[in-house]
Design brief:
single chain, alpha+beta, four-stranded antiparallel β-sheet, three-stranded mixed β-sheet, 41% helix
């Protein structure tokens, strides 16, 4: 989302992974609160998150949620005609210049790799800061005409109230997510943000799940449904989202080994191993499976538990040793004639007579051997 003031060309922006209303709301509100005021008008292109089909009057109609966002900030909404980017020429040109500035900054940086998204966002903020450095005088003129912000922001989310299905899943925006099996049959509140969604039940947030992009996808966490599946191991074979229940390739290889050696009990054994991963540590179970696969040993819940017991040290209280304080070292300081060095030099015995407040006020520092 790219925000530009058309007089000073002051600009800012935020990363969007899709043209959703949540991305639009987050980007606009971030920009207004960073700017510290509200202009009279917000002009956008024909975003589906903001503009509905053309009404009977021939004019575009804004979506209900976008209208509510504009009302909250007392903004007048405006959009350009389809395919008429020149009607928003100033912003289109700034967007082109921004991409060039980012490209050049990456070249100077010497790498396009970032440790995480936060590091890339910090990089973009630096780019915006450099671009806005020469626009301060005109920005002052523009800020003087801005209206004040409302008392608080609107929530950047869309709320859904859904019932958890018998397979411990919910469907949000044509995508499927798993929730904890104890919520099966319950009605929960889902708050959908631009990047993630929150699961609320009984006015308490239970967890945050990454948001899926597009439609027809699914995000199933084995920790949510393992207890439910463990009670019904026969359902695992034909489970629709079974591919999501293999946290890594070693889990998949272990399941294939079980199917080839003991197909009658493979499902029950694998679910028991998955239950261990949820109850203990996934990394520990994966290491145990890797060891069993490398040695071509038989795989079972009992073998994995044995490996975990061998490689997991038993918890015990750490040994803490406190050395006895030797008070004679202070006598040595007196004998060596150490002094306090600051604005003036005095003997250590005289300095000790000063209280701590006086020493701090005078800015003294202690040095040895002077």
């Amino acid at each position: 989302y790219h925000f530009v003031l058309t007089y000073s060309n002051w600009e800012t922006g935020s990363i969007c992974f899709s043209e959703s209303f949540e991305s639009l709301s987050t980007g606009l509100q971030h920009a207004l609160w960073e700017l510290g005021g509200v202009p009279k008008m917000h002009r956008s292109d024909r975003l589906s998150a903001a503009v509905q089909e053309v009404g009977k009057s021939g004019e575009p109609e804004f979506t209900r949620r976008y209208q509510a966002l504009l009302r909250h900030y007392k903004l007048k909404g405006q959009t350009i005609q389809t395919g008429k980017g020149n009607e928003n020429g100033d912003v289109e040109q700034r967007h082109h210049r921004l991409k060039q500035a980012v490209k050049q900054s990456l070249m100077l940086r010497g790498s396009q790799n970032f440790s995480d998204r936060q590091a890339y966002e910090a990089f973009l903020r630096q780019v915006f800061s450099q671009l806005n450095a020469g626009r301060r005088e005109r920005l002052v003129e523009e800020v003087a005409l801005l209206r004040s912000l409302p008392l608080k922001r609107l929530d950047d989310c869309t709320r859904f109230h859904v019932k958890v299905g018998p397979s411990s899943t919910i469907r949000i925006q044509k995508n499927v997510y798993s929730v904890h099996s104890r919520l099966i049959g319950e009605r929960i509140e889902v708050r959908l943000y631009a990047d993630d969604l929150e699961i609320w039940y009984a006015q308490k947030k239970l967890e945050t799940i990454p948001r899926l992009r597009g439609c027809g996808h699914h995000h199933i966490q084995y920790r949510h449904i393992i207890e439910w599946l463990k009670r019904k191991p026969g359902a695992f074979e034909n489970y629709r989202y079974r591919s999501d229940l293999f946290p890594s390739s070693h889990f998949r290889m272990a399941y294939d080994r079980l199917m080839s050696h003991a197909p009658t009990r493979a499902h029950k054994e694998y679910l028991g191993i998955l239950y261990l991963a949820a109850r203990e540590t996934e990394s520990g179970v994966e290491a145990a499976l890797k060891g069993l696969l490398d040695t071509d040993a038989s795989i079972s819940v009992a073998e994995v538990e044995r490996c975990l017991a061998v490689h997991t040290p038993s918890p015990r209280s750490p040994d803490v040793t406190i050395a006895e304080v030797d008070a004679t070292v202070y006598d040595c300081l007196f004998a060596q004639g150490a002094t306090i060095v600051g604005e003036s030099e005095v003997s250590l015995k005289d300095a000790c007579a000063l209280n701590e407040t006086d020493m701090n006020a005078e800015g003294f520092t202690m040095q040895e051997g002077h």
